[in-house]
Amino acid sequence: MTETSIAMGPYSAVVTSRGGALRELQHNGRDLVVGFGAGGRIPDYRGVICAPWPNRLADGAYEYAGTAFQAVINEPERGAALHGLATDQVWDVRETTNSSVTLGCTVEAGPHYPADLDLEVSYTLAADGLHCSVRAANTGGTAGPYGVCPHPYLVAGPAPLDEWTLELPASEYLAVTPDRLLPVGMKQVAGGSFDFRAERRLGPVKIDHAFTGITSDDSKTARVRVHDPSGTGVELEWGAEWAWVQIHTADKPTKPDRLGLAVEPMTCPPDAFNSGTDLIHLQPGDTHTAAWAIRALG
Q1: Number of neighbouring beta carbons within 10 Å of residue 11
Q2: pLDDT for res 251
């Protein structure tokens, strides 16, 4: 496996060829994401690129352009194909500088997916944080459905997650079944435990849901901010390409538990290959690019 270290000013990062993942991001030596070891499998999909679909695909089954497809069930306890076809791949390093790295991998058409894709992710450190983008190109002769998300777990500071505050500019969320976490319908956050439009303490709330109805600024940029009681924090921002964001409080039945807050901008919601909601249709020769950034606060 290849690992690339990059740095710029107070920021440093380590990117691994496993899943094209961000393995480490620090600001003045402080962790901004939950990292993982240099060897072995990546725990909890930390920092990977989820494509050509994000989140869960129910039963791994879908139809596209009249043809049935079956993806491998990699979440057997919920009967789902989780996070696409690129997370277990070894991505190749295509370009690197002292402060940036670009990696790529391919998805080949088959019984699991109709199209040939070239995926490329770029990580660039600047004075104001880590800037990232992911591009998909349909290199074959058949159209394919497409969705994508990054999968970082943010770290606000040294206190437990329950003591952090969250600001999440989303007015709706996708309710899911309690057993398989599959979509059942939209709900408003107003008046409920998922309403973080005004910054407030996370407390014991458990979240593993997709949010939409996102408020952005004049430049069509949205931001999630997480703060620690010590005064430190971290921010993830994304553009209009991402209509959804998955938030997960990293709850585990065993320790270590609630190590960080997963903030995953998504171009489409879970199971979009079946619902069609906000699904991108990549025709032969088409490309799609989406960007996000992570920076320290405080």
Answers
A1: 22
A2: 97
